[in-house]
Amino acid sequence: MQQTYKNPIYPYTPCRELNAEEQLHHPVIIVGAGPGGLALAVDLALQGIKSVVIDNNNTVSVGSRAICFAKRTLEIMQRLGCAERMLKKGVTWRHGKVFFKNEEVYDFNLLEESDHQVPAFINLQQYYFEEYLVDRAAEFDLIDLRWKSKVISLVSHEKMTQVIVSTPDGEYTMTCDFLLCADGANSPVRKMLGLESKGQVFQDRFLIADVVMKAAFPTERWFWFDPPFHPNQSALLHKQPDNVWRIDLQLGWDADPAHEKQEHVIRPRIQAMLGEDAEFELEWASVYTFQCRKMERFIHNRVIFVGDAAHQVSPFGARGANGCIQSAENLVWKLAKVLKKQAPLELIETYDIERQHAAKENILNSTRSTDFITPKNHISRIFRDQTLLLAKTHDFARTMVNSGRLSTPCQYVNSPLNTPDDDNFCSLLAPGCVPKDAPIFIARQQDWLINHLGNQFVALISYKQITAMQQQYLETLGKHPLLKLLVLCPGSVNTKLPENVTVIQDVKGILAQRYDLQNGTTYLFRPDQIITARWRQCSAEQVIGAVNRALGFELTGPVSNASSIHEEVII
C-alpha cells in the first residue's frame, strides 16, 4: 500500500515520579493523547491549568480515521490556536450530492450565508489533526505529555483519584484532583472501574478505503444509494488532502472483516466504482460496524469521561470527533473555574447534564441515518427508495433523505446555567446556543466577532452612543474580574473606558442583523463561547447575576461574594 503520510515518532522521556520518594499530586491527569485528550490539555493550558497527558503509544493516529471537521470544531480550534494549519492543509467543502442508482437526486449547500470566517466543513485526516494538537501542546509549559505510558490500575475516591502508570522504565503512582478519560471507545479506564457503555450494534458492515489518485471529481460529498457499481448497497466518496480520497462501501452483515480488508478483495470494488481506466493506489483500509452507545453517567467521583470513551456513534454524519471536541470545550472551562475556586464543584455536574443531552441527540441522528441507509425489511426499503425518487422533483422529500445528518452544534437551551429570556427576542441565538460569527472592525482593522469570545465571560453590548449613564454602567461591569466587555458603537468614542472594554464597529451591519441588536441589547457569552443570557435593557446586577448563574452558584444556594457586584445602573 502507498503511504502519503509518515507518522512522527515522539520520544519517551522518563518522568520525575519514577525517582520520587513520595507520590506527586496533579490538578488534572488526562488519559489518551487523541483528539479529545489533546484538546483538553491545550484548552486547560489556555485557562492556566496544569495537566499531565499519558498515552500508551508514541505517535498519532494510524490511518485517516475521522476526516470531516465541522464549522463549530474549526471555531473551537481557532480559539485553541490550531485552525490556521487545519484550514491551510484541509480540503474545504460545503456542497454535496445525493445519487439513487445512476441518477443525481439533488445537491445541497451547507453554508449559504456569506461573511463567515471559517467554512462549513473541511476534510483533513485525523493524523494531521492530532499532529497539529501535539505541536500546539508543546508550546505550553503547563502541559506534561508523556508517551509510552499506560494506566494499569486506579482507585477512584470522592475527592481525588490515584493511578498507577506503567512505562519502559517501570511503574509509578500519582494522584490528581480530576482524571479525564479520553482513551477511546474501548476505554481501559472505564473497564477498570467496572462501568459500561450501553447501546445498539447495527447489523451491517462497511469498508473504509483511502485511495491515492488524481481525479477530476469536485471537492464535494457524494453519496450513492443502490449504485450500479455496488448494487443494493450504499457508497460514499470524499476528497482529502494529498490526493487521498475516502471511499465508504456498504458490505452487509454477512461480510467477513478479515477477508474484506485484503487488497485483492478491495481493489475490484473500487475499480468498479471509479471505472476500468482509473489508476489508484490503496493507502489504508478498515472494516467497521455501526455502534451507537453511551455511558449512563459521564462523571464518577473525580473521573470524567470524554469523547468515544463516553459516547460512540456511527461515522456517517461526522458526529464522533466533532462531538468529542465540543465535549472537551464544555468541560474545560468548568474544571478551570472549580480548580481556581471561582465556582462550586456542582458546576462540573452540568457537563454531564449538557453533554448527555448532546450524546442523545447525536445517537438519535446517527440511528436515523443508519436506519435510512440500511433498511431493516422490504417495506422499509420501498419507503426509502420512493422517498429518493420523490426527492428528485419535490423539496419536501429532500428533508426526509438521510445519508448521514451532518454534524451541527448542540444547543443547550434547557441548561440550568442559562438565564431565561424576559424580553421579546427572535428564537435564533437564544441562551444555550453557539455564537454566530460576523465581521467586525476594531480601530479600523477588520476582525471577527468569534475571535473575541471565549476563555472568559464576555458581554456584547450595543449602543448608538455612549452617554454618561452608560459609561457608569460600563465602569461598574468593568470591576468584575471574570468579565470582558465588547461594546458595539457606530461612532467615535471620546470618553475613557475601563481596560477590559473593547469598542467594535459593525460596518456591514451583519452583526446587528444576526443578533437582532438594538440600542442597549446585551448578550452574555460563557468561556466556551455559548450564549448564556441576553436582554433588550438590563442592569449591571442582572448581568452579574447571570454570570453567577452560569458559574453554577444557583445550583448550590447563595451567590458567592467573590463574584458579585450589586449596583443598580439601568440602561
Short description:
The protein is of the alpha/beta class and 571 residues long.
Describe the protein's architecture and organization:
By secondary structure, this protein is of the alpha/beta class. It is built from 14 helices and 26 strands. Strands 1, 2, 8, 9, 10, 11, 17 and 18 form an 8-stranded mixed sheet that branches. Helix 1 packs parallel to helix 8, helix 2 crosses helix 3 (83-89) and helix 8 (320-339) packs antiparallel against helix 9. The chain starts with 23 loop residues before the first strand and ends in a 21-residue tail after the last helix. Residues 558-571 have low confidence and may be disordered.
Key features of this structure:
571 residues; alpha/beta; FAD/NAD(P)-binding domain; Glutaredoxin; eight-stranded mixed beta sheet
Which term fits the overall shape?
globular
CATH architecture of the domain at 16-88 and 112-196 and 292-361: 3-Layer(bba) Sandwich
Distance between termini? 67 Å
| CATH fold group of the domain at 16-88 and 112-196 and 292-361 | FAD/NAD(P)-binding domain
How many strands, what sense, and barrel or not for the largest sheet? Answer: 8 strands, mixed
Rg over CA atoms, rounded to whole Å, is 25 Å
Beta-strand segment tally: 26
